[in-house]
Design goal:
single chain, Thrombin, subunit H, Pdz3 Domain, 3 domains
Amino acid sequence: MKNKTILVTTLITIIAIIVILFVYSRLSNRSGQTPVNPGFGTTEGTVPEAMTPSQGPEGPVDFIYAAEQTVQAVVHVRVRSTVSGGNESDNPLFEFFYGNNANPQPRKVTGFGSGVIISPDGYIITNNHVIVEADSIQVTLNNNKTYIATLVGRDPDTDIALLKINGENLPVIRYGDSDKLRLGEWVLAVGNPFNIGTTVTAGIISAKGRSLNFEGNYRIESYIQTDAAMNMGNSGGALVDTKAELVGITAAIVSPTGTYSGNSFAIPVNIVKKIAGDLHQFGKVQRALIGVKIQEVNSDIAKKENLSNVSGAYVASVDPGSSAEEAGIKAKDIIVKINGANVASPSELQEIISQHSPGDKINITYIRMGKENTVSVVLKNFEKSTYVVRESSGDVVLGSKLIPLTRREKRKYGIDFGVKVTDLGEGKLKEAGINKGSIILKVNGKAVNNASDIRDITSDGENFTSIEGILSDGTFFKYQLKS
């Protein structure tokens, strides 16, 4: 009897152990997912599907693939420019790029930066501030092959420029999707800091939609912020994710010393590819506008307008004849959604609109007096039309190519006439000491608005006695010339 009791007890124990092991194994391998600490952004304590093994919390991220796939497609951009001393440009990044060593005499300077090859036949994206006012642009690949580059087009408002070299079967970096970037995601910055050669650094996405408050009425600022180290020369380089996809073009740092101090900024690729595509197709960006001046929503505005969240883009004013006015949007409205997607800030609104073209129809949701409204808006361009705007090729007079000033340039200098020198060739303007980028206001004491005015006033150069205007460094000039 005693032996029988022991046998039954042993069998029960064995069965219990088998059941416990079976249940434990099922729980441990449930759905084939790896258990992690619950409550840290995961569902039911499991690793999200989007997280690859190399991105998991139990092992380091592998940057090797992304680095090897991208270094060959990031180039060294070297420019030669003629400057007149002092602050060489109105671009706030130019001083950091070239320095600010005042010198009243024109001189040749060399600058450098980075670029990203986006097509096998040699189209390259870089920053506008890298090539602004350049007399010549040279591109060196990671294999040390050197090419002379031509400027296809540039856009100061987004700080993007498109170059072209004559190449075949060149390595490229494929576009990613900057809208899908998440805070804390790993990225690599690839560029040419301090002119030492292609360099890869790593960091995380620190913030999105960051504004740095650079000057410009139509400047689009919605930077990606990262702690990947960047320095002088990284401008125009690549910000890539761990899949080796381009998510941004590196553009700026914020630092009290002029060198990396923990914060670096890149232009989102979803803005970049729209700008580059326009420059390639039209030579000029087809910029879409709602036609409103906007500002941040603060706690006072949120309280006054009875908002549940301190977010959105507050409409400070509406431009007459704009898309916004036609759609019924008014000052003090708060834009909170575009095509159903939430808009948290003015920079987010700018980023979304910058990916559209004139003629596109979008839905804008705004709050007025506590009530949410949605209207359909057809976006327009600067001229309040939906027509394609092409870059003027300019007219050659006195050996140089001249174009009329834009409205933005006229506003900047407080003038309503003048022409700009876009290409300086041999001739009387060059002999007079005018440099590329200068603005000519008057010739022989008479105001000019286009190249034809100069041609008529000077009798095609036969009667050229005086010239006045603004040099590329912002200095006013007035020269009397020998007849």
